[in-house]
Design a protein that fits this description.
The protein is α+β, with helices and mostly antiparallel strands. The strands form two sheets. The chain has a two-stranded parallel sheet with strand order 1-2. Strands 3-4 form a two-stranded antiparallel ribbon.
């Protein structure tokens, strides 16, 4: 008796935070992700948000700080980071639904 095994492939995709401001590109990406999911892929989406984080910090008169190219994330900054990334997450989820 032969046994068929279903193998789920995992695909990790990294996108830049600039995708958040390009609605057409984000919509296209979400359509492609939906097709991959239907095809049996398990997806991991990793995204940035640096540009939006910096803009939000500037609006709060809290200039972004970096040391050797790495963001210095103090207590006030982490609140902005969390908000920006959660907003982007929500936008992605909305487009996928």
């Amino acid at each position: 008796m032969s046994q068929t095994t279903s193998v789920t492939k995992t695909l990790a995709i990294k996108i830049g935070g600039s995708m958040a401001v390009d609605d057409q590109a984000l919509s296209g990406l979400c359509q492609a992700l939906a097709q991959l999911s239907i095809s049996g892929y398990r997806l991991i989406l990793v995204h940035g948000g640096g540009k939006d984080i910096n803009e939000n910090l500037e609006l709060l008169r809290q200039p972004p700080r970096f040391i050797d190219g790495l963001r210095v994330t103090d207590t006030q900054t982490i609140k902005v980071v969390e908000k920006v990334l959660m907003d982007f997450n929500s936008e992605i989820i909305e487009k996928l639904e």
